[in-house]
């Protein structure tokens, strides 16, 4: 399973990248706004900085909703850096654009997926990644992890090559459960990635080992 970080914050991307286990980055317009990026030139420059920093796929989301505009915007994003993956919303014109990008060799991530039907449409359109938002599904009293398992089963039965990119992660446990459910990629905030490292017995055990090691001196 691949590990992506879900942020546009350069310090957090660097911290995760320094672990040596980072496979990519996902961003969205809200995450870009959160770090104060404003204006087309700044947006493009920020995507370039991220793409140069990480050796892996970097999702950059279009904000157009009409087929022709999505294609034009996606081509511009694609031209920024070879690591850029064009992130396209799960809407009718988005599906048409995903097919166009697929036919023209441009990598895509289909975002805002909340059902197996949508995941089937994205796979049929040739999306490289489908992003089910499991945290937002959980927030609505549905089971996001069940959706990951359902899509994994469908893709396996049907032989679809689209990778399942579990998104909207809220906790380290979400990451573990996504791994169990068959996600190909999990994109998480830094806090959830770092949370995977934590166990109180590790801390207690290490403190004891270090204390006992002092007796050697
Ligand atoms: C990733 O591609 C999504 O944009 C992101 O995971 C959404 O997460 P949120 O539901 O925490 O905003």
Automatic annotation (TrEMBL):
It comes from the Bacteria. One of its GO terms (molecular function) is aldehyde-lyase activity. Keywords: Cytoplasm, Schiff base. One of its GO terms (cellular component) is cytoplasm. Its main location: cytoplasm. InterPro entries: Aldolase_TIM, TAL/FSA, Transaldolase_3B/F6P_aldolase, Transaldolase_AS, TSA/FSA_arc/bac. PROSITE patterns: TRANSALDOLASE_1 (PS01054). It is found in: Cytoplasm. GO terms for biological process: carbohydrate metabolic process; ketone catabolic process. This is Putative transaldolase.
């Amino acid at each position: 399973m691949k590990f992506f970080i879900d942020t546009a914050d350069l310090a957090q991307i660097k911290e995760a990248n320094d672990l040596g286990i980072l496979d990519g980055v996902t961003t969205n317009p809200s995450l870009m706004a959160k770090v104060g990026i404003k204006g087309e030139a700044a947006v493009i420059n920020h995507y370039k900085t991220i793409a140069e920093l990480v050796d892996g796929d970097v999702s950059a989301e279009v904000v157009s909703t009409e087929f022709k505009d999505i294609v034009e915007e996606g081509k511009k994003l694609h031209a920024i850096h070879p690591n850029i993956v064009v992130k396209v919303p799960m809407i009718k014109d988005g599906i048409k654009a995903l097919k166009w990008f697929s036919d023209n060799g441009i990598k895509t991530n289909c975002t805002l997926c909340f059902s197996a039907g949508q995941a089937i449409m994205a796979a049929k359109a040739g999306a490289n990644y489908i992003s089910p938002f499991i945290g937002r599904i959980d927030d609505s009293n549905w089971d996001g992890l069940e959706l990951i398992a359902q899509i994994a089963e469908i893709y396996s039965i049907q032989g679809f090559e689209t990778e399942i990119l579990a998104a909207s992660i809220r906790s380290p446990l979400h990451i573990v459960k996504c791994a169990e459910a068959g996600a190909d990629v999990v994109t998480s905030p830094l806090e959830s990635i770092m949370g995977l490292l934590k166990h109180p017995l590790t801390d207690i055990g290490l403190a004891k080992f270090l204390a006992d090691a002092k007796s050697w001196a």
